[in-house]
Design goal:
By secondary structure, the chain is of the alpha/beta class. It has one domain (8-233): TIM Barrel. 48% of the residues lie in helices and 11% in strands. The chain contains 12 helices and 8 strands. The chain has helices spanning 25-38, 57-71, 86-99, 116-129, 140-143, 149-158, 173-181, 196-201, 216-227, 231-250, 254-264, 281-293, and strands at 8-12, 42-44, 78-80, 103-106, 134-138, 162-167, 188-190, 206-209. Strands 2-1-8-7-6-5-4-3 form an 8-stranded parallel β-sheet.
């Protein structure tokens, strides 16, 4: 099985749409190029930021193929391959592998309440169908299912291709428990921006963030400061970007906040796809103030 070692900033990219609500592949190229030139360590399309749940399968495939081809091995690509059914996830996972993705990320997408065994079997069937790493994504606020550290350790120990975990619970103790239960062999990535400093200090391998679309330098500098054990500098950098990080998470979802921020910067990514609505004017004003204070816009 192909394996990869990713440390640092994993940038989550939005899916750009044109005025007709069709995917703009040229816009996707612009986003990818910006991020790689800024120095991010990996690219991840088709997550929450990428509005994957609102794309058709053909659209999902076009974004996957374009991202892998245009990135052209400059950095690893982790493709979001989540779906409501195991069969659909497998189809996405196999396609991602066929076009050259380095890994896939999967969050359980639940309508009926599922048990741990249901979720385990879901990941097991996906793993059995591919030969690239799976990033287990735990975000109970979105999925409705909280994967406890003991369950994540079970996935890692019993499913061959489970090689990484992204945790967005906001619970710093999860890092310590997962590291202990997996003998520090399972890389953990911070998926909840407000506790990134604590997670990285506690041993997380990297930071999965949509903020890199707007403030990549601040994100990268913070990560480097922690790696260099310059904690005072890290906290200073974190405090500088905290208000922005908090805003993009709390004010209606990453796709609408990040797209609004990019629009302020002159990067045309279109609106979110319905039923997600664009930011209302009062929130746009607030975001512009925050970005002005960061010297991102004038």
């Amino acid at each position: 099985m192909k394996n990869i070692n990713i440390e640092g900033i994993v940038a989550y990219i939005p899916t750009p749409f044109d005025k007709s609500d069709q995917i703009s592949l040229k816009g996707l190229e612009i986003l990818i190029d910006r991020l790689i030139k800024k120095g991010v360590d990996a690219i991840s399309p088709l997550g929450s930021t990428g509005e994957s749940a609102y794309l058709s399968l053909d659209e999902w495939k076009s974004v996957t193929q374009k991202t892998v081809e245009f990135t052209n091995k400059r950095v690893p690509v982790i493709v979001g391959a989540s779906d409501m059914t195991t069969a659909n996830c497998i189809e996405k996972a196999k396609y991602a592998q066929s076009v050259g993705a380095d890994a896939i990320m999967v969050i359980p997408m639940i309508y009926w309440k599922l048990s741990e065994d249901d979720i385990f079997n879901h990941y097991k069937h996906i793993s059995d169908a591919i030969d690239i790493p799976i990033v287990v994504y735990n975000n109970p606020s979105n999925s409705g299912f909280d994967m406890k550290p003991s369950f994540i350790a079970r996935l890692f120990n019993e499913i061959e291709n489970v090689k990484m975990v992204k945790d967005s619970t906001g619970d710093i103790q999860r890092v310590h428990e997962i590291r202990l239960l997996t003998e520090d062999k399972l890389p953990i990535y911070c998926g909840y921006d407000p506790i990134v400093v604590d997670m990285l200090i506690s041993g997380a391998s990297g930071w999965c963030t949509a903020a890199a679309n707007i403030i990549p330098e601040l994100n990268i500098d913070l990560y480097k400061a922690i790696k260099n054990k310059s904690l005072a500098q890290a906290y200073e950098l974190f405090n500088k970007q905290y208000r922005f990080l908090k805003f993009i998470i709390e004010e209606g979802g990453l796709s609408k906040t990040v797209k609004s921020g990019l629009t302020f910067m002159g990067v045309n990514v279109g609106n979110p796809r319905l039923p997600i609505s664009p930011l209302y004017q009062d929130k746009l004003n607030e975001l512009k103030i925050i970005m002005t204070e960061l010297n991102i816009v004038g």
